Amino acid sequence: MIDIQHIHHSFKIGKKGRENEIKVLKDVSLTVEKGEIACIVGRSGSGKSTLLNLISGYIAPTKGKIVIGGTDVTGFSEKEWAKFRLENFGFIFQSFQLIPSLTTFENIELPLTLKGVHPSERKQKVTEMLHRVGLENHAGHFPNELSGGQQQRVSIARALILNPSIILADEPTGSLDSETEQEILEFIKQLNRERGITFIIITHDDEVASIADTKFHLFDGVLEKGEETVEV
């Protein structure tokens, strides 16, 4: 499903002609199979957010290759990436990223609207999704009227509404208490089992990483899997 081959990423700081190169990722390779839950674990500054942004096409690698679902996306233009993301990815964020002025229903509906789905079909799909995530009684509520766990369920519902094959999650329980964290992790495992969605989760939390089928560790831009260091 996802094959990352010898990825490097760096950026330069300082005045032109006197720049210093900061290496963020160093020869990172990993494979995530279809239907897996993969966790990328690392401390702040280890490069895990950079790796997620590379997988989702928001930044480009300095060197290396990224293949997703058999498609080499390494050289995609912004327009090609936007279309690919809409068709293949769902996103879950630590801070939920809900639009405050939209209701629960409208936040979940937004990707369907952006894709040009007919209003009657949007209503049917969102109604079904609200039931799926247990928020049918909160359709008209705004984000500030929901608990943290409910807001994350809205975020997950929005990520699911276009039936993506891959969900990328950035610290999905980082803003939640331990009880609510367990609830959301159980929900992610249930979605993975029932729908076969591939999850890539970045986290610094061992509790979150415990649900992974495959676990990777990032240390200062170097990726490790188990006891085997991937850097060569």
Task: Determine the structural class based on helices, strands and strand pairing.
Answer: alpha/beta
Strand order of the largest sheet: 6-7-8-3-9-10-11
Helix content bin: 25-40%
Number of DSSP-assigned strands: 11
Per the CATH scheme, the topology name is: Rossmann fold
Beta-strand percentage? 25-35%
Mean pLDDT across all amino acids: 91
Radius of gyration: 18 Å
Number of helices, counting only DSSP H or I runs of 4 residues or more? 7
Largest sheet: 7 strands, mixed
- Give the class-level CATH name: Alpha Beta
Number of domains: 1
Characterise the protein shown here.
The chain has helices spanning 48-55, 78-88, 104-115, 119-132, 148-160, 178-195, 206-209, and strands spanning 2-13, 20-32, 37-41, 63-68, 71-72, 89-93, 166-170, 198-203, 214-219, 222-225, 228-229. 34% of the residues are buried. The strands form 2 sheets. A 7-stranded mixed β-sheet has the order 6-7-8-3-9-10-11. Strands 2-1-4-5 form a 4-stranded antiparallel β-sheet, covered by helices on one side. With 232 residues, the protein is α/β, with parallel strands linked by helices. The chain contains 7 helices and 11 strands. It has one domain: 3-Layer(aba) Sandwich (Rossmann fold). The protein starts with a strand and ends with a strand. Keywords: ATP-binding, Nucleotide-binding, Transport. Belongs to the ABC transporter superfamily.
